[in-house]
Design brief:
Helix 5 (111-124) packs antiparallel against helix 6 (128-136). The protein has helices at residues 8-30, 49-61, 69-76, 80-93, 111-124, 128-136, 142-147. The protein is mostly helical and 151 residues long. It has a domain at 49-147.
Length: 151
C-alpha cells in the first residue's frame, strides 16, 4: 500500500494541522468560555385538584348536595340541568376543557372545574385573576368564591 504523499514536508504540514485542530478541540472542551446555566427545578405545589372536584360535586351535583337547586340557580344564574348540559357540550367540543395529565403524569383540573370557573367569570364579569383562588378548590369551594360577588 502506498502513501498518498511521498513528500515528507507535506506529511509534516498535515500532521501539524491535525494536531492543531485536535488541540483546539481539547482546549475548547476543557476550557468552556460560558459556564453552563444552573438547572432550576420547579417546586410542585399540591393543590388537591381531585379533592376539589369531589368537593364541588358533593356541594352541587351529588344526589344529596350541600346546596339546593334554588341556591345553585342564585349563584350560577341558571338551573342545574342547563349547567350540566353546557359542561358536557363544552367538554366534548373543546379539547381545552377535557381533563388531561400534565408532563409529570398528574391529573389537571376536571372539565367541571374549568367550566365552573369560566361560567362564573362570565356570570359575574370578573377576571381570571379573581377566579385563580377558586380554581385551586383545595381551600375553598364555589360558594365561598361566589359569596364575594353575590349580595
Amino acid at each position: 500500500m502506498s502513501n498518498w504523499s511521498s513528500d515528507p514536508e507535506v506529511d509534516e504540514m498535515v500532521e501539524e494541522e491535525v494536531d492543531n485542530i485536535v488541540g483546539e478541540i481539547q482546549y475548547n472542551y476543557t476550557h468552556q468560555d460560558v459556564p453552563s446555566a444552573p438547572i432550576f427545578r420547579r417546586v410542585h405545589i399540591n393543590r388537591d385538584r381531585e379533592e376539589g372536584h369531589t368537593r364541588l360535586w358533593n356541594d352541587y351535583f351529588s344526589e344529596n348536595p350541600t346546596y339546593n337547586h334554588r341556591m345553585f340557580r342564585r349563584r350560577f344564574r341558571m338551573n342545574k340541568p342547563l349547567f350540566i348540559r353546557i359542561v358536557n357540550t363544552i367538554e366534548n367540543g373543546v379539547s381545552y376543557f377535557r381533563q388531561r395529565r400534565d408532563a409529570t403524569g398528574r391529573l389537571g383540573l376536571s372539565a367541571l372545574q374549568k367550566c365552573m370557573a369560566t361560567i362564573c367569570m362570565m356570570a359575574y364579569r370578573c377576571s381570571a385573576d379573581a377566579m385563580d383562588e377558586y380554581q385551586r378548590l383545595a381551600e375553598t369551594t364555589a360558594h365561598k368564591c361566589l359569596e364575594k360577588f353575590v349580595e
